[in-house]
Design goal:
- By secondary structure, this protein is of the alpha+beta class.
- It has a single domain, classed as Roll (Ubiquitin-like (UB roll)), CATH 3.10.20.
- The chain contains 2 helices and 4 strands; from the N terminus they run E-E-E-E-H-H.
- Strands 1-2-3-4 form a 4-stranded antiparallel sheet.
- Strand 2 and strand 3 form a beta hairpin.
- The chain is elongated.
- The chain starts with a strand and ends in a 17-residue tail after the last helix.
Length: about 90
């Protein structure tokens, strides 16, 4: 299945492996080889929705991320999720 890039509009999101970073209390959690989707044109990246469900099951919801509508939070199926890597400012 192919997914159009929501960022550039003409690229295609393809499966990729990235490093997942997340704050968990006072700790930083790092997961190498985390499933993601990356645009072959502009490098826009989104986490895989099925992998995010597993992470949220173990660690709970990511309180640092913007609140998503409930119908997007645990989207069933495969493919790119609604969230991707972001830069934190300390």
């Amino acid at each position: 299945m192919t997914y159009a890039c929501p960022n550039c509009g003409f690229g295609t999101l393809k499966p990729a492996k990235i490093t997942y970073l997340r704050r968990w209390g006072d700790h930083m959690v790092t997961m190498p080889d985390f499933p993601a989707w990356r645009c072959d044109s502009c490098n826009y990246t989104r986490y895989d929705s099925a992998a995010l469900v597993h992470v949220e099951y173990v660690f709970g919801p990511d309180l640092d991320s913007p609140i998503e509508p409930p119908y997007l939070r645990h989207r069933a199926g495969e493919g790119p999720g609604e969230r991707g890597p972001r830069r934190w400012s300390f």
